[in-house]
Amino acid sequence: MITRRHVLKTAGGSAIAAGAAAIGVGGAGGTQSAAAATPSSEPVPGLDPVLPQGLRDAAVMDKLPGKVPLIKLSYRPPNYETPVGYFNSLFTPNDAFFVRYHLANIPEVDAASWRLKIGGEAAEKPFELSLDQLKSDFPAAEIAAVCQCSGNRRGLFPSHVPGVQWGYGAMGNAKWKGARLKDILERAGSTKDALEIVLDGADGPVIDQTPDFIKSLPIWKALEENALVAYEMNGAPLPHFNGFPARIVIPGWTATYWVKHLTSINVRKTPFDGFWVKTAYRVPSGKFPVVQRFVSQETAVNTPITEIMVNSIITSLADGQTIGAGKANEVKGIAWDAGYGIASVEFSSDGGKSWGAATLGEDAGKFSFRPWTCSFTPPKAGAYTLMARASNKIGQTQTAELILNPAGYNHNVIHRVSILAA
Ligand SMILES: Nc1nc2c(c(=O)[nH]1)N[C@H]1C(S)=C(S)[C@@H](COP(=O)(O)O)O[C@H]1N2
Ligand SMILES: [Mo]
């Protein structure tokens, strides 16, 4: 049983605690039992006005075991997004990190009996690892990287696109620590003709018709320095809902490849033909500016989604918020991309008629959120439309017009926040 608590983190970052928090941790074990959630009496703060009214009415704050209240979009399977206010911090706290699953059967993995199996037709020396061996047999690498769902902001598409109706919070930034995939593949004797690796996790479908969530990745991407089998997130073991005890981390690529509760890696010589690669997570060919492609899976019409598009949001002010006229306000935000590095963020307070440079903050690495700030003093009382636009070091800039695609991926339209000065 989960009793709703109204601890709502506002976009300004202050926590409003209203009402007692009585949280029973239930639903452990095989599948999550249904929460006896009463309808929320409070709206979720800071939801974008572009989100459909029905969604805005239905969105409620709800608490999964081990998590703070997040914006619940579905319970079975659990899909919960992070309120934008948490992105005022460079790293997203583990207990506020978004949760995304395709399948509702999510076992609590026992760390002692968990094994990772590495094999396949293009691995000459298949082997198995315990969690202790994963930690001790390979040098540990730690890297800051954004984990972003391909469908982040799908709910902002003007005409309904089927899928989870995410707002801005199907993403987070963390320091991921683990073994390098390349070291594991090397030990497995990955052969020269290896083409893809296939990744499977412990979760599975409840009804047999839903295909198991299995992903493949080009071998060259798996062999990159930054690709990890991670067992730590922000200095702590991975939370259950973020893939305990180990998950794949592919910095710069969308989180569909970041398989959680990893149980097997199979090295193949031919293209994998599972549903989640062959059919789902695809974008029309040539529509998005990508450098790194998944060529062995491309068709004449579409291609697997790969790199994260350059993007930014304003995090310190929410739509509809009132600030003081004539008073200096430090507007805060974040920018990120596929790892080419953020070159600049521009800020506008007049709906995009004029732009000025924002100041970039701490550089925690090229795959991390890059914080930025910009001072804004509303000259007089009235309405203002604030906008932020990021560009990266290879000359890519956020799009002004949404790039339509059937699955609602890669939303990187310039963020706007309408505020009032009084
Ligand atoms: N085992 C497993 N791994 C998975 C998924 C899943 O459904 N099962 N979903 C993927 C997708 S689409 C996303 S966006 C990320 C979400 O990561 P998070 O839940 O840790 O935020 O996990 C990825 N890894
Ligand atoms: Mo996703």
Highlighted features:
422 residues, mainly beta, Sulfite Oxidase, Chain A, domain 2, Immunoglobulin-like, 3 domains, five-stranded mixed sheet, five-stranded antiparallel sheet, 5 helices, 27 strands, 31% strand, globular, binds ligand MTE, binds molybdenum atom
Give your account of this protein's structure.
The protein is 6% helix and 31% strand. The chain is mainly beta and 422 residues long. The longest helix is centred in the middle third of the chain and has 7 residues, at 181-187. The protein binds the ligand Nc1nc2c(c(=O)[nH]1)N[C@H]1C(S)=C(S)[C@@H](COP(=O)(O)O)O[C@H]1N2 and molybdenum atom (MO). The site of molybdenum atom (MO) has 6 residues, from loops.
Question: By CATH's scheme, which homologous superfamily of the largest domain applies?
Answer: Oxidoreductase, molybdopterin-binding domain
When the domains are counted, the total is 3
Overall pLDDT: 89
Low-confidence stretches: 1-42
CATH topology of the largest domain: Sulfite Oxidase, Chain A, domain 2
CATH C-level class of the largest domain is Alpha Beta
Which hetero compounds are present in the coordinates? ligand MTE, molybdenum atom
Shape annotation: globular
Q: What does the main sheet amount to?
A: 5 strands, mixed
Structural class: mainly beta
Q: Termini distance?
A: 44 Å
CATH architectural arrangement of the largest domain: Alpha-Beta Complex
